[in-house]
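User: quick one, sequence for these tokens?
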């Protein structure tokens, strides 16, 4: 739909269109999130493909996967983000990691986090 066509619509029609687009976007994101959840794993390096410019194209390591979001740690800053599963994609082998971080260091960091969790929750840990 062009801007000329949109300009001809009334405010009520534009609101209805916005609601339909929002509903369709939510449905598509749910579907993509469910498809992504089956392919993602803890420790996997992923790239953010959502709309937030602050972290656009940044790479992360998945620390936890929930039903809708994944807890991801930035490879650049170390900051943790809850990211919608529909907004991340698996990195291929040439995924950009910062110069100071190797994949082994990331894996060791995750292993340390897992050990800390196991020590704090011995009855809740099942491997």
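Assistant:
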């Amino acid at each position: 739909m062009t801007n000329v066509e949109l300009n001809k619509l009334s405010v009520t029609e534009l609101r209805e269109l916005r609601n339909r687009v929002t509903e369709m976007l939510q449905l598509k994101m749910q579907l993509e999130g469910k498809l992504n959840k089956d392919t993602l794993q803890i420790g996997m390096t992923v790239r953010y493909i959502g709309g937030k410019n602050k972290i656009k194209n940044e790479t992360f390591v998945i620390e936890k996967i929930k039903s809708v979001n994944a807890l991801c740690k930035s490879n650049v800053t170390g900051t943790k983000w809850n990211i919608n599963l529909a907004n991340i994609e698996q990195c291929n082998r040439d995924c950009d990691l910062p110069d100071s971080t190797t994949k082994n260091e990331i894996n060791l960091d995750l292993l340390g986090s897992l050990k800390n969790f196991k020590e704090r929750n011995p009855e809740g840990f099942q491997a």
